[in-house]
Amino acid sequence: MIKKKSRAIVRQDKHKRIRNKISGTAEMPRLAVFRSNNHMYAQIIDDTVGNTLASASTLDKEVSKGLDKTNNVDAAKKLGEVMAKRALDKNIKTVVFDRGGFIYAGKIQAFADSAREAGLEF
Fold this sequence. Notes:
The chain has helices at about 5-20, 60-65, 75-90, 105-115; strands at about 30-35, 40-45, 50-55, 95-100. The chain has about 120 residues and is of the alpha+beta class. The chain has a four-stranded mixed sheet with strand order 3-2-1-4. α3 (about 75-90) packs parallel to α4. The longest helix has 17 residues, at about 75-90. The radius of gyration is 15 Å and the shape is globular. It starts with 6 loop residues before the first helix and ends in a 5-residue tail after the last helix.
């Protein structure tokens, strides 16, 4: 009998493969995205020293204000705008995008597109 891997295990395996190929530096940090069933989280990370340079999530009042739900495409767009604003405030213009093993569609794509429109380059 063949056992099927859970979706979470498959995503974690994809994320490990992605992380073997990309890494954030001081000049070009990594923009990591994670989405749970209820919220989305984003961090800009310098992997050479292991510091988080900027972060945002749908738990923040600035992001969740005016939203009905925190787990839909509209929330992802708002999170992308806020994340780009916080990055640009710290003079971070270019990043490496780490989708966290999630498929580049839906909320992840909406987040990335809104961050690009707000001024981040990746």
